[in-house]
């Protein structure tokens, strides 16, 4: 039991520190891309907390209208909303995920991930959008009039990457905000699961002990009942001196009285032929009279 508890504590410790240790491998979307020939990729739409691996924040910069931006983060619960508030505070325009069409989710390029104190806060993604009109349809949140950029589409003019100043501003937001809420939420969830498993283990152990105690009690009760049945069939009489005296004083008890007597056979005349033979006398004869009531009397039979 102690070994199980120690193993459970070690598992919880490793799970709670999983958010603080950078992963040795990077998924395709978060991998470092070449600055000369960026490779485009598609973004998986966020569905639910327990089924998704990443969450996204879509936005654009009025100072750099030729590009759409996104922040990809593995902190799913609270961190995206916090980043959206800080982006709006820094004069970025946040776009709701519900406005993004499926075709628009492809054609994204990613920059290097932002890591602070061994924790990956997020990765900045960007996408060239030459088909956007000057009316800024993406700013209005209407993606139906904005053309979809295919993965193989290469713009004919303009910069390949957004300005370094825009990327630096987004990186500053990621560095200044640590996803403490998501980290504590994940730890509490793992701790709750571990406590639930530990509680179920204690309940199971208690039920097993209770069943064992009941089995031992039932076994002991059956043995006691068997002993009682055997004792009822055997009657033990008091054979001590007081018991024998009580039997002597009982006048109403009509019991046969016996005397112990020893009879000696009559003398036998021996013939001359039998003189000199070594024939022993027959043994004396005894009779029982009044055993236990009076001393034994030996009478010589004539």
UniProtKB/TrEMBL annotation:
Signal peptide: 1-18
Transmembrane segment boundaries: 184-211
Highest taxon above the source species: Eukaryota
Residue ranges, annotated region (Disordered): 271-294
Keywords, comma-separated and alphabetical: Membrane, Signal, Transmembrane, Transmembrane helix
Record bears the keyword Transmembrane: yes
Protein name: Uncharacterized protein
Naturally occurring in which organism (per UniProt): Didymella heteroderae
